[in-house]
Protein backbone atom coordinates (compact mmCIF):
# COMPACT_ATOMS: atom_id res chain seq x y z
CA UNK A 1 0.00 0.00 0.00
CA UNK A 2 1.26 3.45 -0.93
CA UNK A 3 1.42 6.33 1.55
CA UNK A 4 -0.90 8.13 -0.87
CA UNK A 5 -3.69 5.63 -0.24
CA UNK A 6 -4.38 6.78 3.32
CA UNK A 7 -4.58 10.42 4.45
CA UNK A 8 -3.13 9.74 7.91
CA UNK A 9 -0.23 7.78 6.43
CA UNK A 10 0.41 10.61 3.94
CA UNK A 11 0.43 13.24 6.70
CA UNK A 12 2.80 11.11 8.80
CA UNK A 13 5.06 10.60 5.80
CA UNK A 14 5.16 14.35 5.13
CA UNK A 15 5.68 15.07 8.82
CA UNK A 16 8.62 12.66 8.93
CA UNK A 17 10.23 14.30 5.87
CA UNK A 18 9.63 17.76 7.36
CA UNK A 19 11.24 16.73 10.66
CA UNK A 20 14.24 15.34 8.78
CA UNK A 21 14.62 18.56 6.81
CA UNK A 22 14.41 20.68 9.95
CA UNK A 23 16.95 18.51 11.79
CA UNK A 24 19.42 18.93 8.93
CA UNK A 25 19.08 22.71 9.19
CA UNK A 26 16.97 23.36 6.11
CA UNK A 27 15.53 26.89 6.17
CA UNK A 28 11.74 27.32 6.41
CA UNK A 29 11.68 29.20 3.10
CA UNK A 30 13.39 26.26 1.39
CA UNK A 31 10.95 23.82 3.00
CA UNK A 32 8.01 25.90 1.78
CA UNK A 33 9.46 26.10 -1.74
CA UNK A 34 9.92 22.32 -1.80
CA UNK A 35 6.35 21.84 -0.54
CA UNK A 36 5.13 23.98 -3.43
CA UNK A 37 7.17 21.98 -5.96
CA UNK A 38 5.90 18.69 -4.54
CA UNK A 39 2.32 19.95 -4.55
CA UNK A 40 2.65 21.07 -8.16
CA UNK A 41 4.15 17.73 -9.19
CA UNK A 42 1.44 15.75 -7.41
CA UNK A 43 -1.32 17.90 -8.91
CA UNK A 44 0.02 17.37 -12.43
CA UNK A 45 1.34 13.81 -12.30
CA UNK A 46 -0.39 11.77 -9.58
CA UNK A 47 -4.01 10.67 -9.45
CA UNK A 48 -5.57 11.48 -6.04
CA UNK A 49 -6.08 8.31 -4.00
CA UNK A 50 -8.52 9.53 -1.35
CA UNK A 51 -11.13 12.22 -0.77
CA UNK A 52 -8.74 14.62 0.96
CA UNK A 53 -6.26 14.45 -1.92
CA UNK A 54 -9.09 15.03 -4.39
CA UNK A 55 -10.10 18.20 -2.54
CA UNK A 56 -6.48 19.41 -2.52
CA UNK A 57 -6.12 18.64 -6.24
CA UNK A 58 -9.33 20.54 -7.02
CA UNK A 59 -8.23 23.54 -4.95
CA UNK A 60 -4.76 23.48 -6.53
CA UNK A 61 -6.24 23.40 -10.04
CA UNK A 62 -8.18 26.65 -9.55
CA UNK A 63 -5.62 28.48 -7.42
CA UNK A 64 -3.27 31.19 -8.62
CA UNK A 65 0.47 30.57 -8.06
CA UNK A 66 0.30 32.70 -4.90
CA UNK A 67 -2.65 30.69 -3.62
CA UNK A 68 -0.83 27.45 -4.47
CA UNK A 69 2.10 28.63 -2.34
CA UNK A 70 -0.38 29.32 0.46
CA UNK A 71 -1.82 25.79 0.14
CA UNK A 72 1.69 24.34 0.27
CA UNK A 73 2.54 26.46 3.32
CA UNK A 74 -0.64 25.28 5.06
CA UNK A 75 0.27 21.65 4.36
CA UNK A 76 3.67 22.28 5.99
CA UNK A 77 1.91 23.75 9.02
CA UNK A 78 -0.53 20.84 9.10
CA UNK A 79 2.17 18.19 9.23
CA UNK A 80 4.65 20.13 11.38
CA UNK A 81 5.48 17.95 14.37
CA UNK A 82 2.99 15.30 13.20
CA UNK A 83 5.63 12.87 11.97
CA UNK A 84 6.26 9.59 13.70
CA UNK A 85 9.88 10.36 14.59
Structure, described:
It holds the Pfam family DUF3243. It comes from Rossellomorea aquimaris. Helices cover 73% and strands 0% of the residues. It is mostly helical and 85 residues long. It has one domain (3-79): Cytochrome Bc1 Complex, Chain D, domain 2 (Orthogonal Bundle). α2 (28-45) crosses α3 and α2 (28-45) crosses α4 (65-79). The model has no long low-confidence stretch (mean pLDDT 86).
Q: How many domains comprise the coordinates?
A: 1
Average pLDDT for all residues: 86
CATH topology-level name = Cytochrome Bc1 Complex, Chain D, domain 2
What is the number of helical segments per DSSP (H or I, 4+ residues)?
A: 4
Tell me what the CATH architecture is: Orthogonal Bundle
What is the CA-atom radius of gyration, in angstroms?
Answer: 12 Å
Helix content: over 70%
Which structural class best describes the helix and strand composition? mainly alpha
Cα(first) to Cα(last) distance is: 20 Å
Fourth CATH level, the homologous superfamily:
Protein of unknown function DUF3243
Low-confidence stretches: none
Helix-strand sequence:
HHHH
Count the strands?
0
Shape call: globular
Q: Main β-sheet, in a few words?
A: none
Could you tell me the strand content as a percent range?
under 5%
Quaternary structure of the protein: single chain
CATH class group: Mainly Alpha
Q: Care to give the gist of this entry?
A:
With 85 residues, the chain is mostly helical.
Topology of helices and strands:
Elements: H1 7-23, H2 28-45, H3 51-62, H4 65-79
Helix pairs in contact: 2-3, 2-4
Amino acid sequence: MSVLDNWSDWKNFLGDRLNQAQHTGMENETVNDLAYQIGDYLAKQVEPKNDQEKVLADLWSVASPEEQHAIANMMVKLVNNNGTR
